[in-house]
Amino acid sequence: MLGLLAPQPSPARAAGILREVFGGLPTPFAFRLWDGQEVRVGGDRPVCTVVIKAPETFRRLIGNPTPYHFAAAYVESAIDLEGDLFAAMDVANAVETLRLSPLRKLRIFLSLWKA
């Protein structure tokens, strides 16, 4: 859904979207965006950090935030994982419970145009 017509998200907008989508998960983890900004979700002491290397990767992941898509991005070297990789499995299990309705995905897509 988040294809070629999507704008380049600003790091600030990406941070807001990450907090919105992942903020309710019980396992604390973090994202580091392509500009170096760290976004913590689920608590203060992240067990691991997902390093998103480019805005295009962010758009792909947020369009369908499943462990499978994160694993594929990792294999492609589009993201890195820092920290305890065994604890990252707890994060993956928590992410597995995420469900974004088509309407919510559309709202997130449209919000990429905001500053």
Task: Give your account of this protein's structure.
There is one protein chain. This protein is an alpha+beta fold. It has helices at 11-22, 55-63, 67-75, 85-96, 102-111, and strands spanning 29-32, 38-41, 48-52, 79-83. The protein has a single domain (11-111), classed as 2-Layer Sandwich (Nonspecific Lipid-transfer Protein, Chain A), CATH 3.30.1050. It is built from five helices and four strands. Strands 2-1-3-4 form a four-stranded mixed β-sheet. The longest helix is centred in the N-terminal third of the chain and has 12 residues, at 11-22.
Set out the fold topology.
Blueprint: H1 11-22, E1 29-32, E2 38-41, E3 48-52, H2 55-63, H3 67-75, E4 79-83, H4 85-96, H5 102-111
Parallel strand pairs: 1-3
Antiparallel strand pairs: 1-2, 3-4
Portion in strands: 15-25%
Mean pLDDT: 87
Order of strands across the main sheet: 2-1-3-4
Highest CATH level, the class: Alpha Beta
CATH architecture: 2-Layer Sandwich
Question: Residue ranges: pLDDT <50 for 5 or more in a row?
Answer: none
First and last CA, distance: 20 Å
Approximate helicity band: 40-55%
| Main sheet record | 4 strands, mixed
Task: Describe the global form.
Answer: globular
Sheet/helix structural class: alpha+beta
